[in-house]
Amino acid sequence: MFRYIVRRLLQMILTFFGATFVVFALMFANQDDPVQALAGEKPVSASLREALTERYHLDEGFFGQYWYYMTNLLTGDLGESISGREISALLETAWPVTVRLALMALVIAGVFALAAGVWSAIRRGGIFDNGTLAFTLLLLALPIVVLAPVAQWIFAMELDWFPATASRNASFYALLLPAIVLATTVVATQLRVTRTSVVENLGADYVRTARAKGLLPRRIIWVHVLRNSLIPFITLIGVDLGVLMSGALVTEEVFNIPGVGSKLAQGIRTEDGPMVVGFVSILVIVFLVMNLVVDLLYAALDPRIRYE
Amino acid sequence: MSDPTTLDSRPRSLAGDAWNDLRHNKIFWASAALVLLLLLMALFPTLFTSADPTDCVLSRQHDGPSGGALFGYDFQGCDVFARTVHGTGSSIQVGLLSTLLAGLIGLSFGMAAGYFGGAIDAVLSRGIDIVLGIPVLLGAVVLSGRLSGSGDDGVTAVTLTLGLLTWTSAARVMRSSVVAAKSQDYVAAARMLGAGPARLMFRHILPNAIAPFIVVSTVLLGANIAAEATLSYLGVGLKGDALSWGLQISDAQKHARVAAAPLVWPSVFLAATVLAFIMLGDAIRDAFDPKLR
Amino acid sequence: MDVLPGLDPRAPLLQVNDLHVEFRTRDGVAKAVNGASFWLNPGETLAILGESGCGKSVTAQAIMGILETPPGHITRGEVRYRGVDLLKLREDERRRVRANKIAMIFQDALSALNPVYSVGFQLAELFRAHRGTSRADAKNKAIELLDQVRIPAARSRFSDYPHQFSGGMRQRVMIAMALALDPEVLIADEPTTALDVTVQAQIMGLLAELQRQRNMGLVLITHDMGVVADVADRISVMYAGRVVEEAPVYDIYERPGHPYTRALLESIPRLDRKGQPLTAIRGLPPALTDIPAGCAFNPRCGYAKEPCRQDPTPPAYAIAPRRTARCHFFREVLGE
Questions:
Q1: pTM to 2 decimals?
Q2: What per-residue confidence (pLDDT) applies to A33?
Q3: Cβ(C314)–Cβ(C326) under 8 Å?
Q4: Across the interface, which of A206, A214, A231 has its CB nearest the CB of C114?
Q5: Taking CB atoms and an 8 Å limit, are C106 and A209 in contact across chains?
Q6: Which chain C residues are within 8 Å of A213, Cβ to Cβ?
Q7: Which spans in chain A are helix H?
Q8: Does the pLDDT of residue B292 top 60, yes or no?
């Protein structure tokens, strides 16, 4: 277990430096005028130019710049946006609602995917199974950029079942429609993976043993099969977090939720380079850390990994 | 159980088997037909509409369907049908080219990692990990903004962005199938008969490792088309005068309460396109996957 | 456990009559078991012998009631435990017979044990599910069992996972699991096939010893005549889903009564036949979708004549006291 954790940790650190380096390089490499790049197409005043140059050490070499960028990032100093606000303060007000939204989406998707996945695996080839197969295909074909505005139009505007927008302190109910929309970005894959894995496990020898032991069918499914099927499901959650972040960008924009996603979208729209880089860097770090957590969870579920 | 002699009398290859399977698959034909229709629309939009998508008259704002304008007019008074049909071109173009780029990168990285193994594999695999460490859309909003110059329509920028960020799945799949193919006896036999690395790779390993790669690429094509729309929606994709479903959705969303058609139709086209490629990928995978036979 | 309806303590421990099982697949119907019959007494070991695909494992699964349905279907016959036809029981009654009265151990213990639960959990689970035992008591009982099957340091190995055990130790865990609820019948499906020869002997010895202690009936399913000779009391030889010969073990080795049994014996090296050539059985077992008419063995049989090629299949001739063979020419085979 210890060796596994150390190995994953080392891998994560490597990926962390690699990924932040890539993000940094994407932002600053090959720019004729990095200051102008940060400010987009807006005219840059002399004072702003000076501030940006100092902030990003643009008068130094590329690796020097990266060094300062990393030290700032690791000490939690994200600098100021073009409009002069503390990026960390912006982040601080924005993250709670995004975390709530993402958690709701993850729980909705997970519960639905597990329940429906197990059920269609048990009744494979049946109406429910074929129904969910068609349903997941439809979900996979509906990008969030289609689903979010259309769902808002149908369920919030035409049918008026849900509020069309949500504030920072939105109630559970106000966040429900955006959370369901966000959940659709991950639920189809989760469901398919669960189903495949449950089908595989149902045919495993240990299930035959469990039946020979005279265990109740529901115990065989929910204790023996599910624990094994959760292993690929948990692995998928790591990937899903990235999908959810991307999805939150659109969902929050559509539903006007003042979270990390819509702040980032706003930064993109106003061509606020420092804000975009700051937010993206933090999100990448969160993504990597969450993936490490998922890896540890994976080890907790699978003793074969733990004692490697 | 069938008589072994009947199996021997007809030489069969994996590709032949797969094609035989595909020929009888209704989903394959349905999705292939849809893809063809979309390609036709992308290449010759004027076959489908004679209206000029840039001919916008504010006085027609949110007018209902009339004459050639099947879906009515949007906020700017542009013909929704004409804009949607003309939007197919950029979607398909960005989708195809970015997938081609991603496919080439993935193919070469995956093949190099799988074939050479050892240190090269380790380095390339860590590289894949690093790119996977950046969620695609997050990387794309940074990169796409950087790549597009002022005043251009963003097509090149989005194509490059998606190509450079989405090759990882293709590389992983290619790597594992090359590793699997490499250990097969026929490859060892070919090596003993004196086949060089290039011949081994292209004559013996590649043809047997390519099927999963094709499947992944087909699905990626759909995903990249969706990603282009998303980036355009967020303002870092196609821009300016470019015609894009994502831009249409973004413009129409604010007015959905008043006029839904300008939101719904590009959405339907986008979903249908993504669906077509996903189904095509599914059908090809089923045909190539011997486990399901 | 509550009393089963119609349970008769004086009836035979286990009796299988005319059991038919078929697998219905898209490619056709495979007749895996075609009228298997045998019986078992307490304390007795019955070996079911046959090549792979002869229906012996399917028979075992049908007795246990763990046949995958679909595709497997029991189309005819009965499985009587102390007079009760298990095939007519409700599923919940049937479930309570498993492990309590009839238990089973499988060939490959690594895949037969759940990889993500400790062996202790998988053992204790039996007491908790069937007897409602408390967690602590179940744990103690599980450790006691691990000790009985001679797993060293049983207490400390309670929370180890299947992959941390050696092959032989894992098979001991399987045995412990099967014996947990004191069943009267134990079905062992190729219990030693996956093991090293030295370990095989240990496991068979352990099984025999535990059987003696508990006066348990043991059905030993195997393709290995060597294993059978040492431990079995009687042998049922199966071919293409039928019991073609049934006899006490000594008689069969001495004088086989069916050409198939004879061919099997001639294909293995034996000390008492030193110097004689080994002969492989020519041909292959029939496809279960296409079993030959008459005696299923006739295409491979040196004794086969016209009646063997015609339905019905030969009856089970009583060729000697406590012996039957399904061969029209058993006299010739016996060498009378």
A1: 0.82
A2: 63
A3: yes
A4: A206
A5: yes
A6: 98-99, 125-126, 129, 177
A7: 2-28, 34-39, 46-55, 62-74, 87-122, 127-141, 144-151, 172-202, 205-212, 217-219, 226-254, 260-269, 273-301, 303-306
A8: no
User: Is the CB of residue C290 less than 8 Å away from at least one CB of chain B?
Assistant: yes
Give the CA dihedral B86, B90, B96, B100, nearest 10 degrees: 160
For B86-143, the DSSP string reads HHHHHHHHHHHHHHHHHHHHHHHHHHHHHHH-HHHHHHHHHHHHHHHTS-HHHHHHHH
- 3 state DSSP class of B19: helix
CA distance to A102, A147, A241, per residue, from A99 (Å): 5, 21, 11
C108, two tokens = 């490959």
* Mean of the per-residue pLDDT values of chain B: 79
pLDDT greater than 80 at residue B72: no
Closest-CA residue of chain B to A29: B146
**Mean pLDDT over all residues of chain C?**
85
Nearest-CA distance C308 → chain B (Å): 24
CA distance A163 to A161: 7
**pLDDT at residue B252 is higher than 50:** yes
What pairs with residue C325 in β-bridges? C245, C317
Residues of A in contact with B292 (CB under 8 A): none
Handedness of CA B270, B274, B279, B284 (dihedral sign): positive
Taking the C-alpha atoms of residue B216 and residue B285, their distance in angstroms, rounded to an integer, is 9
Average pLDDT on B122-143 reads: 85
Element (DSSP H or E) covering residue A255 = none
Mean of the per-residue pLDDT values of chain A: 83
Mean pLDDT of A190-218: 90
Contact of C108 with chain A, judged by CB distance below 8 Å, is answered with: yes
Answer whether C26 touches B (CB < 8 Å): no
Place C266 in a pLDDT band, splitting at 50, 70 and 90: confident
In the numeric block, the tokens 């496919």 are attached to B103
Test mutation, A122, A206, A221, chain C, max C CBs within 10 A: A206
